[in-house]
Every structure is written in C-alpha cells, then in structure tokens.
C-alpha cells in the first residue's frame, strides 16, 4: 500500500495486477473473511460503508433479461443500450442477491475512468433489505456464500438481528473490457441504519457525500498493471 495523501492510499488489487485509491481507515476484509478470488472487499472502520470490486465475465448483448420495470428505463437513455443494459443487469443482480428490493436513483450514464482505455458507466440505487440479517452481517454473509465456512479464529459471530427493514445506497460503476471478455464492477455501499441511529444530524447525507468522493477518486485512479489477469 502506497501513501497517496488526502486521506487515500494507492492500494494493490489481485496480487498487484491492478491498483486503486482506497480511503485510509478501510479494512481489507480478505484478512477477516474468506473472499472469492474475483473480489476485493474493503470496509470502513468508523461506519459500515464498504467497497466491493469484482471481476466477472463480460455480459454480451441479449445474454441477460431485465425486469420489465428496469428495462423500461433504457428507453429514456441515449448512450449505448447494450452497455447500459449490462449496467442495470449487474446492479439488479447485486441488489437482489439477498432477496432485497431496489429503486434506481441515478440512471446509468457514461463516466470514463482515466487510466483504463475502455467505456465505463455509473449508476446509483436505494436498496431495501428485509430479513433476519442486519446490514453489518449482510455483507460477510453474502461474500461467504460461495467461499465455504469461515475458518475458526476464536471470534464469535453476533446473533442475528430481529427481522426488520433497512436501507442502503449502492454507488456503482462498471468498466467494460470487451477485448478481454471482462466486466470490472465496483460497488460502494452505504448502509443507513447505524448512521440514522447515531443521532448525528445529517449523518446519512454526509456519508453519501463521502461515498461520491470515494467513487470519484477510484474512477480517476483505477488502473491495470498486468492485463494477463484477465487471461488471453
């Protein structure tokens, strides 16, 4: 990790094959939970805001089906419909992976990263969670679904929270590497419950502004050092 000033550190991803600015005070969750090989996950030590970076196979046109109400949004957008459809599908897949519902707050739009010569897009959604997992448990539960049991480390898991509804904001951007058949997904998730319960006026709005800043810094700094990461 290289110090970059202004509260960020230039951080290696995937064994040094990529790099990006991550806020200081964010823990690499791979040192705590088993993380799938295609993901890098960081979480704030002061709030529950978390960053998930994921490499997945590139979605090709007509390879996915969007819910009717989500697909209808494409009719109002002017950019590349295939790419915008991929943005909405990836966001839909993430938001509904735990049975959550979501509402698009900012429609997908082009917003290129500076260091990767590939099309990129941003989007934002409000996610509503209903279930026995609290937001603090939801992320490690989601990440460990396909990673096997958590190794015994002397830590005791917290008891599940009572079933209730909670909300979070997902700030999302997608980089499309057509040549390498890869989509790079970045999710910045801002759970609201702890912020709302803190009693601090404007705590949610302040954290949302912070998330916008994190996204801007990540989009200007995300870079690929070794393209062999994506195969031939």
Automatic annotation (TrEMBL):
Signal peptide: none
Recorded superkingdom: Eukaryota
Single Gene Ontology BP annotation: protein import into nucleus
Keywords in alphabetical order: Protein transport, Transport
GO cellular component, one term: nucleus
Protein name: Ran-interacting protein Mog1
Region described as Disordered: 137-161
Record PANTHER family: RAN GUANINE NUCLEOTIDE RELEASE FACTOR
InterPro entries xrefs: Mog1, Mog1/PsbP_a/b/a-sand
Xref: Gene3D superfamilies: Mog1/PsbP, alpha/beta/alpha sandwich
Record-linked Pfam families: Mog1 (PF04603)
One term of GO molecular function: guanyl-nucleotide exchange factor activity
Biased composition (Polar residues): 137-155
UniProt record similarity statement: Belongs to the MOG1 family.
């Amino acid at each position: 990790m290289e110090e970059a000033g202004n509260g960020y550190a230039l951080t290696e991803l995937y064994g040094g094959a990529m790099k990006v600015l991550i806020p200081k005070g964010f823990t690499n969750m791979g040192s705590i939970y088993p993380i799938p090989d295609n993901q890098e996950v960081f979480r704030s030590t002061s709030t529950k805001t978390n960053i998930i970076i994921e490499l997945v196979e590139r979605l090709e046109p007509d390879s996915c089906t969007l819910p009717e109400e989500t697909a209808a949004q494409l009719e109002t957008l002017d950019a590349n419909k295939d790419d915008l459809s991929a943005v909405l599908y990836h966001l839909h897949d993430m938001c509904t992976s735990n049975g959550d519902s979501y509402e698009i707050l900012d429609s997908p739009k082009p917003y290129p990263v500076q260091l990767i010569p590939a099309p990129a897009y941003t989007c934002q959604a409000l996610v509503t969670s209903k279930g026995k997992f609290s937001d603090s448990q939801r992320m490690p539960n989601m990440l460990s679904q396909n990673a096997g049991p958590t190794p015994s480390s002397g830590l005791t898991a917290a008891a599940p929270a009572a079933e209730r509804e909670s909300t979070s904001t997902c700030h999302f951007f997608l980089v499309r590497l057509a040549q390498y058949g890869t989509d790079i997904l970045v999710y910045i998730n801002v759970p609201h419950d702890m912020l709302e319960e803190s009693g601090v006026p404007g705590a949610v709005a302040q954290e949302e502004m912070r998330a916008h800043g994190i996204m801007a810094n990540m989009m200007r700094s995300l870079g690929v050092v070794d393209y062999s990461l994506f195969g031939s």
